[in-house]
Write a structure and sequence with these properties.
660 residues, Thrombin, subunit H, Immunoglobulin-like, six-stranded mixed sheet, 2 helices, 49 strands
Length: 660
């Protein structure tokens, strides 16, 4: 590409970049295909596990492109990326010559001071190296070039003799270098110390060398820790913040004076409660509350904004979080729908709070206060404009509700979840529905805190088979979505009730006995048959063994109901059984009930002649018991005399038949 066209393209990209709204996220480097390309638009470059980023006073960005074994720079004006150190081949060479001809090996750290001197944590070579801004010459400023640990019982080690374990971070302050000597995860161990270079020697300012968590409020030299990213807050107390990754916390170092007047470096926790789950992983919690009570999961980098906000790269939660000026914590970038352990890439050009990240790693703040960070899992450098921007951001679980066919009188329920995915509280100021068939008991105004949710329980009760439409209208304080309209639809289903038998007649029953018969209530067609109530007009002589109310019968199914007859006096007794349902064609079915009560005679005998068909006044003078009709059932014959002789037969039924 001609150089003029390259510059114009870069200027166009830069202009579009700097026209972004507050809280917007974009990619400024990576995502391209040119693995080792130099002097190309940064978004055309392919990064290979970038592990640190720094910004100078002019806004130029420096990247430790670790697995490419180079240091790259993005020009603040043009957006062009250039290799400023390393050849792309791992090794150690080049001291005293141009940095671009030198070999580096897995550089994991980079920083730049106010003089423009670029310091490199040449991790694989166990050295800290420096690029002179005037000449481009690279030199080693600390490190013997061998893996080792800081000697015990020795206060200072010469810069040429110091053996590092794993250089993971650097602060290039005007008063000297601060080096994070952390964990080599391939070896499973590390030095776990924070070192300071002063003059020609190196001393420990924090860490016992043991990985762990201890020492808060005391001397940092007695603290167990696991150092990753660091940053310097150049405010009034010159505080160092660092990610204590394995304890899932962010901690700080600050000069203090003990009771005897002796100065020492004090360590304390500023974010993270350190809690883990059953698998030993960190947690995600606490937005809107005190930062020290929040759950973090492998915080890996940290940066400080111009107003004092602390930005945390919450790596395994795939979020960037901010300790606010009042000590509370909020999320400023990254959303993880469904599973907090899944990262991704999405959202460029939109709000950072709604974007998807994959292992945010290290960060720096540019002169404009914008946040530059490594999206490590995506091999990109991304930028958030005005990261102090806070907004509510409403997410609704549905854009429409179709209740489908619903049985009359029964209705159906649905739940709408309202989530605030922003970093400022959200208020639902109004909720209305323009159809009386759709209802809710949701009360407004309702406040939803960041990353909290509320549910709206909706109910649809049709009154006929017609299709019903309505609209749920939400008014909120979300500046991007102040009004939501959610269509609601549904229709009615008519069940078809059937009751068998249509009437019940009980045989004669003694007043000290009971008889029981059954009716069957069926739903012959579709939907749900709702038996609202079954009512007996006479509850003295007729009873239901179990109350039947609020019973639902599915299509093609049935429900049996038993009716008990217990006559309280002699003679005919009648009543009605009323069945109330949601069948609009037969909302009430009446089942006639009848029976007759008999009062037992003293001694236990009772004249039953009239009830069994042998009540003529003739005298009975003979009976016989045999299967005379050869139907397999014994028959009882009674012979009586009334003017003409009569023969009565009973073949097992309730009465006799005059047969001769």
């Amino acid at each position: 590409m001609p150089k003029l066209h390259l510059i114009l393209l870069a200027l166009f990209l830069s202009t579009s970049v700097y026209g972004q709204d507050p809280g917007t996220i974009i990619t400024i480097a990576g995502g391209g295909t040119d693995l080792l390309g130099s002097e190309i638009p940064a978004t055309e470059a392919q990064l290979n596990v970038p592990q640190d980023v720094a910004v100078d006073n002019e806004g130029n960005i420096y990247i430790a492109d670790s697995f490419n074994h180079i240091i790259r720079q993005i020009d603040a004006t043009s957006g062009v990326i250039t290799t400023i150190a390393g050849t792309g081949t791992p090794g150690f060479s080049g001291d005293g010559g141009p940095a671009t001809n030198a070999e580096l090996e897995y550089p994991r750290a980079v920083d730049v001071n106010d003089l423009g001197e670029v310091f490199i944590g040449d991790t694989g070579n166990f050295r800290v190296r420096k690029i002179d801004p005037a000449t481009g010459i690279i030199t080693t400023v600390a490190g013997a070039g061998e893996r080792g640990t800081f000697p015990r019982f020795i206060e200072r080690v010469h810069i040429d003799s110091i053996r590092f374990g794993e250089i993971v971070s650097i602060i290039a302050g005007n008063s000297g270098l601060i080096i994070g000597d952390g964990i080599n995860f391939d070896l499973g161990s590390g030095n776990n110390r924070i070192l300071q270079v002063g003059g020609d020697s190196v001393n420990v300012i924090a860490g016992t060398g043991r990985q762990g968590y201890s020492g808060d409020g005391g001397n940092a030299l007695a603290a167990d820790l696991a150092i990753e990213g660091m940053t310097l807050d150049t405010g009034s107390d010159l505080r160092v913040y660092f990610a204590d990754s394995q304890s899932h916390r962010v901690r700080s170092l600050v000069e203090a004076v003990d009771d005897s007047g002796q100065a020492f470096t004090q360590i304390e926790t500023v974010a993270g409660n350190g809690r883990t789950n059953l698998f030993g992983e960190g947690t995600l919690s606490g937005d809107g509350g005190p930062a020290v009570d929040a759950g973090l999961d492998l915080p890996w980098g940290v940066a400080v904004g111009p107003q004092g906000r602390i930005y945390i790269m919450d790596l395994a939660n795939h979020r960037i979080r901010s300790v606010e000026l009042d000590g509370t914590i909020v999320t400023v970038a990254g959303t993880t729908p469904g599973n907090v352990n899944e990262g991704g890439f999405d959202g460029d050009g939109g709000l950072a709070i709604a974007a998807t990240l994959d292992q945010p790693y290290r960060a720096a703040v540019d002169p404009n206060g914008d946040l530059i960070f490594i999206d490590n899992g995506n091999n990109r450098i991304r930028k958030i404009f005005q990261p102090e921007f806070r907004t509510s951001l409403l997410a609704a679980s549905a854009t429409l509700f179709n209740f489908g066919p619903v049985s009359l009188g029964i209705g159906a329920n649905r739940t709408l979840t309202l989530e605030n995915r922003g970093n400022r509280s959200l208020t639902v100021t109004s909720l209305t529905i323009d159809s009386e068939r759709f209802t809710t008991e949701f009360v407004t105004p309702t406040k939803i805190e960041p990353f909290a949710s509320r549910t709206v329980d909706l109910r649809f009760v049709p009154e006929n088979e017609d299709r019903i439409e309505g609209t749920l209208i939400l008014l909120t304080t979300d500046p991007f979505l102040p009004r939501i309209e959610i269509p609601l639809t549904g229709s009615g289903i008519v069940p078809d009730i059937d009751v068998l038998p249509s009437s019940i007649a009980f045989n004669q029953t003694f007043t000290d006995q009971t008889r029981e018969q059954r009716i069957r209530i069926s739903n012959l067609t579709q939907g749900q048959l709702f038996v609202e109530q079954i009512i007996l007009s006479d509850t003295l002589n007729f009873t239901l063994p179990q109350p039947v109310a609020g019973v639902t019968i599915s299509a093609g199914d049935f429900r049996d109901v038993n009716v008990i007859f217990t006559p309280q006096n002699a003679g005919p007794i009648s009543a009605e059984l009323s069945i109330l349902s949601n069948d609009p064609d037969e909302p009430e079915i009446l089942v006639p009930l009848s029976g007759s009560g008999l009062v037992p005679k003293p001694g236990g005998f009772l004249d039953l002649a009239g009830s069994v068909g042998v009540a003529d006044p003739g005298a009975s003078f003979g009976v016989a018991w045999a299967d005379y009709d050869e139907d397999g059932d014994p028959d009882l014959y009674v012979v009586k005399s009334l003017e003409a002789n009569r023969l009565y037969r009973n073949d097992g039924g309730d009465s006799f038949t005059d047969v001769a």
